Amino acid sequence: MSRVGDGGIAVEVTGLVKSFRRERRGRPWRRRPGGGELQRAIDRVDMSVRDGEMVAIVGLNGSGKSTLLRVLATLTLPDSGSARVFGRDVVAEGGEVRRHVNRVSVEASFFKEMSPWENLSYATRLYGRGGRGTRAAAIAALTRLGLPRDTIDRPMKQLSRGQQQKVAIARSLLTSPSLLLMDEPTTGLDPRSKREVQGFVRDIRRQSGVTVLLSTHDLDEAERLCDRVIVLDHGRILAEGTPHELRAEHATAGDGATLEDVFLRLTGKSFDDDTEPGAGEEAS
Amino acid sequence: MSALRVEANAFLGFFERQRNLYRRYWVWEVVWLAYSIVSTLSIGYLASGLTTFNGPGAHAEIARVQLYLLVGSLLWSYLSLVFFEVSFAIGWERWEGTIEYTFMAPVRRVTHLLGICSFAIVYAMLRSVIILAFVALAFHLDLSHADVTAALVVLGAATLPVLGLGIFTSVLPLLSPEKGEQMTVAVQGVLLLVSGVYYPVQVLPKVLRAVGQASPLTYTLTGIRGALLDHMGVGGLRGTICLLLAMGAVLIPAGMLVFARAERRAKRLGLLKRSG
Asked: Whole-model pTM?
């Protein structure tokens, strides 16, 4: 599968809305169809990402980051508006979109009894690859991510959280996506693993020109890795631009202002106050 | 890369994945196989024990009852495993947390489900052969009236509607992350009750008998018992075979259609994300 993209627009989102119904607890026969509180996860979002660009989406838990990435991955259907990936509509042309997109989620989801190799072989086959040369490519990717050679045939459950996340990144890249959706890929990693993953993403992007949408809590990571930053809060885009532009436009602390200051100014909240969304609520 | 090659690769991927999972969980598989062997043998010995109530004169009839029960037990072991494998295809992915990755892949759902179904048939067949070997060692089965070819043809035809039922049931964990798997087990239990696995459906109350008439397992069991106990050939079982094929021809596409609708609903409500 070859990468697509002609240097034009990779992602185009227009007036996108997605709401989820938060079911009330209680006996099923007492719940009315269509009852419960409706919560808007994405609220009329407009955005575009150029081919080859790396864009960070920053926001607290429940801000709509993951839902936005899920819509682009064709895992969630929007209520209204449109989202196009390399010119293809994610709803009407979902099959075509899926050929060019892959995703790394915050939880490294694997068949835990199977080895990294078995999981990677399965994933590549689903994208029409696999067979000869795949094992060598998998070993090369894992070695570059700093994973010991002997881990490739051990059950995933024996690997640390950081090692599992590296396998998840290798899984997404072995399918040569044109658009890589990274949903908090370094959350929960130790500083060393975090640096290794960030370095790998930077290298891959430089070498392959893949378009990356990175959802993150880490404003420092967003600034170091990404060309542009989008600030999302309660499903709405509050600001977007290069880190330099955001600081120039929104910071009040003068030259020494950080993206954290910008975020605080825009949302009135700090990442230190961040909490997980409630039960039954669609997360971030 | 041609579309056909992509789908063939994906099909192989699902087959390999299931094989690798069973290889990794081999201890559990040995335990379940042992359990199936023991329960099949118990049913055979239950029939043997009936002679103690009826006296030696009833021996010939008891041998027939024994074969009747063992056929039911073996068939249930095969068909319920095929059904289980297919209907748990989604439940398993929810449990492992991989469901989003599978549904995000550029694979047709028919390829996905066919890959799972094919492994299920091969695995269930191998398992049933092992159980059959133990049964053959333990009991002197009288197969002098058996038409094995006809039995195998019925079995082949029966696999199709069972796959269709499995696809239908696999929708449950897709729609209900919390209770879908339990509902799948309940469906399996109902099939066991109404399909005449261990008794003729005529002994059931009217309502259950009516439900049993809709179960492909009922016709499968009747057909295979006809072939193995009463020497009915393919010609004599033509009606049963055609009925099973027709049920498969309806249930498989209908199951796929229902699955596609359920997938769309799950994507609309955000149900793929939750792991139950």
From this structure: 0.86
